[in-house]
Amino acid sequence: MKKVLLAVEQNLAEEILANIQKIEPFNDGREWKFETCPNAEQLLKEPVPDVLVLSRNLPGIESFKLLEKVKKRFNKARIVLLVGNVNERSRAYMKKAESLGLRNFVKGELPGERPYIFTIALQKDYEEVAGMEPTDMASKQGDPYRSEDAGMPVPGDGQKKIIIALTCGGAWQSGKISLIKCRNLAEIKKRAKTADMILVSSRAKDAERFVKALRAAGVVVPVVAVGPYRMELINAGATGCVEEVDDALKFL
């Protein structure tokens, strides 16, 4: 039996588990076992699995430091890194990982960018797939590149989502979502009923209070902090914390 440890944010773990059950051979409980780990501190206490899936945004320990610890602790496992959308920060993360000999990168929103999508990464190292055309892999994997076959939803489904944001300065931009910037908490509450997601800058002085107030007001859509990771925002009710605006798409 292959044991897979999903060291990813809770909502992402739920998404993966819900969809992986629809995909052969992973839906065979005699052959594959999936477990989850929601934070870095717990991860370092876990036994070594056959496959470790690590999210770049896993809370608890700074991502570069965690890579070093993971390399040392889980060296005998296949380590798959979910790096998210490719941008300046994710490139720096991949560069750090490569310096440690880690190259199994699943890029973009799940199921990931071809040819190294999530379901293939669970079974093969990137070096085994690099250079192969999608048609070559499809003949062996049953055309896993079609999102409906792979079972992993692609957020956005071609339509822009409505996102409202308290940016605390800075120029937040995205080509994938309709971003409505708000000046204060009252304005966010007023627009919350029509929003698919709410973004709050983790740099905002009152970010923790804003998150608590939104949850207290009955806001149920994802509330995601953008910027440096802050555990207190998660404790206050934030759905997650990401470094770039587009990285928040995975919470839709």
TrEMBL record:
Gene3D superfamilies: 3.40.50.2300. It comes from the Bacteria. This is Stage 0 sporulation protein A homolog.
